[in-house]
Amino acid sequence: MDTLEIANKLVALCKEGKYEEAKVLYAPEAVSVEAGAPPGQAREAAGLAAIKAKGDWWVANHEVHSAQVAGPWPHGDRFIVGFRFDVTMKSNGHRFTMEEMALYTVRDGKIVREEFFYTDGA
Fold first, then answer.
1. Which of 4, 41, 48, 96 is deepest in the core (most CB within 10 A)?
2. For residue 30, how many C-alpha atoms fall within 13 Å in the half-sphere facing its CB?
3. pTM of this prediction?
4. The domain that contains 65 carries what CATH number?
5. Which domain holds residue 8?
6. What 3-state DSSP class applies to 39?
């Protein structure tokens, strides 16, 4: 798949809430970089197992009431996807809206890097 096909597939899966299924689009050595380090974690997760663990942490610590996905916006070997989440932190019951943009880099038909840009809204 080329970059636009990967971008469209990722957006379609995310719109259906199939975030784990979307990992087939990632290279085994993919790197995920957060704007800020989640509690007790590093900003950067390298490899599919580490990226999955980061996602598992998110699900375990947040109740997602709704999610919106926009894009993609392609540019060469990269593309951007926009996300908007209405979430409640399970630890303290704080509900907020989180908006983020994600920049994805594609190489050899797979996502090799994702970078998230956001403010947490907390």
1. 48
2. 25
3. 0.92
4. 3.10.450.50
5. 3-119
6. coil
| C-alpha–C-alpha distance, residues 48 and 28, integer Å | 6
d(CA 37, CA 58): 12
Nearest-angstrom CA–CA distance, 47 and 50: 5
Task: Name beta bridge partners: 80.
Answer: 73, 103
Looking at the 3D structure of the chain, how many domains does it have?
Answer: 1
Contacts of 73 by beta carbon, 8 Å cutoff, 6+ apart: 79, 80, 81
Q: What is the pLDDT along the chain (122 residues), one digit of tens a residue?
A: 999 999 999 999 999 999 989 999 999 999 999 998 878 889 999 999 999 999 899 999 999 999 999 999 999 999 999 999 999 999 999 999 999 999 999 999 999 999 999 976 55
